[in-house]
Amino acid sequence: MIKQILQGMVVGIANIIPGVSGGTMMVAMGLYDRLIHAITHLKSEFKESMKLLIPIFAGAGIAIIALSRLFEFLLGTYPIPTNFAFCGLIAGSLPFIFKKVKGHKVTIGKLIPFLIFFGVVIIMALLGETGGSNADVTFGVVNVIKLFGVGIVAAATMVVPGVSGSMMLMLLGYYDTILKAINNFVDALVKFNTGELVTGIGVLAPFGVGVVIGIFLIAKLIEFIFSKAEIHAYYGIIGLIIASPIAILIKTDWSGVSILMLIISVVTFVLGWFVASKLGGE
Q1: C-alpha to C-alpha distance for 78 and 128, rounded to whole angstroms
Q2: Count of other CB atoms within 10 angstroms of residue 186
Q3: Positive or negative CA dihedral for 37, 38, 42, 48?
Q4: Of the candidates 151, 181, 178, 182, which has an alpha carbon nearest to the alpha carbon of residue 62?
Q5: HSE-up of 55 (CA within 13 Å, CB side)?
Q6: Residue ranges of the chain with pLDDT lower than 70?
Q7: Which residues, including other chains, have CB under 8 Å from residue 38's CB and lie 6 or more apart?
Q8: CA 107 to chain centre
C-alpha cells in the first residue's frame, strides 16, 4: 500500500503541474491499464478495485495539497519563466506520444482529430479567461454549475496519456483560482475559520464532485475509444500537446519581460523538457 500511495503522489504531482500528464505517469509506472480497469469495473470488482483506487487517490490528494502553495507563488511571482518551464514539460512529452503512432502512415482521417483538438485548445486560449486568478467563483447556481463542468473537463484530461489536467485548468482560466482555493481552505482548516471553510467548500465541493464523476464517466469512454481507434486517439492527443505551449504563452502575463527574464525562461524551458523526457519514458 505504501508503494501505491507513493505512486499516487507522483500522479498527483504530475496533475498539479501544467504540461505534465498524470496519464503518462500512470503508463510509465505500469498503473494505467490497472487503474482504468479498476474504475470501469468498480461495481463488479468493488473490493479489488478499491484496494488500488484508495491509496492512489490518497497519494494524489496529499501531493496536490502539499504543492499547491508552491505553484501559486511561482505563477504569481515569476509567471514568464514558470510558464516557459510548463511549455518545456509539454514539449518534452511529445517524443513519448510520437512513439505510439510510429510506423503508422499519416492519413486525412488521422489528421482530422489532430486539427480538431489543436483548434479547440487555441480557441479556448483566445476566448477563455485571461487570468485564472480572477475567475469568478462567488457562490451561486451558475458558478456552481461552471465549477462542476470545469471539474469534469479537468478529470477527463487527467486520465488521458499525454494530456495534462492542470494544463486544461489553466486554459479554462481556473488553474490559479483552484490553487488559491485549496491553499485558503487548508489555512482555514488549520485556524478553524468557519467562514473561510464554508467559502472554500463552496468552490472545492462542486469542482471535486465534477472531478470524481468525470473520472468515472470518461474512463469507460477512453477504454472504448482506445480499443476501437487507438491511433486516431493519439493523433488527437498530439494536437492537444502541440497547441498547449502556444495557448499557455498566449495567456501569459508579459508585463515583466526583459532580456534577462527571457534568458532565464529559455533555461527553465530546457529544464522542463529534460524533466519531462526523463519522467515520460516507459
Answers
A1: 22
A2: 15
A3: positive
A4: 182
A5: 12
A6: 18-21, 24-25, 27-30, 72, 124, 127-138, 161-163, 279-282
A7: 45, 48, 49, 52, 53
A8: 29
Q: Which residues contact 161 (CB under 8 A, 6 or more apart)?
A: 21, 23, 24, 26, 27, 32, 97, 237
- 247: cell is 495557448
Query: Which phi and psi (to 5°) does residue 72 adopt?
Result: -65, -45
Q: Which CB contacts under 8 angstroms, 24+ apart, belong to 51-58?
A: 52/4, 55/1, 55/4, 55/5, 55/8, 56/4, 56/5, 56/7, 56/8, 56/11, 56/31, 57/8, 58/5, 58/8
To 10 degrees, the CA torsion angle through 14, 15, 18, 19? Answer: 50
pTM of the model: 0.67
Helices (H) and strands (E) in the chain, counts: 11, 0
pLDDT tens, position by position, 203-244: 888 998 998 888 888 888 877 887 888 899 889 888 877 887
What pLDDT is attached to residue 21? 67
Burial class (CB in 10 A: 0-12, 13-18, 19+), 76: middle
Please report how the helices 46-77 and 32-40 are oriented relative to each other, as an axis angle in degrees rounded to 10: 120
In three-state form (DSSP H/G/I as H, E/B as E, the rest C), the secondary structure along 67-108 is HHHHHHHHHHHCHHHHHHHHHHHHHHHHHHHHHHHCCCCCCH
Cell of 253: 502575463
Q: What is the DSSP letter of 282?
A: -
Burial (0-12, 13-18, 19+ Cβ within 10 Å), 23: buried
Report the alpha-carbon distance of residue 11 to residue 8 in Å, rounded. 5
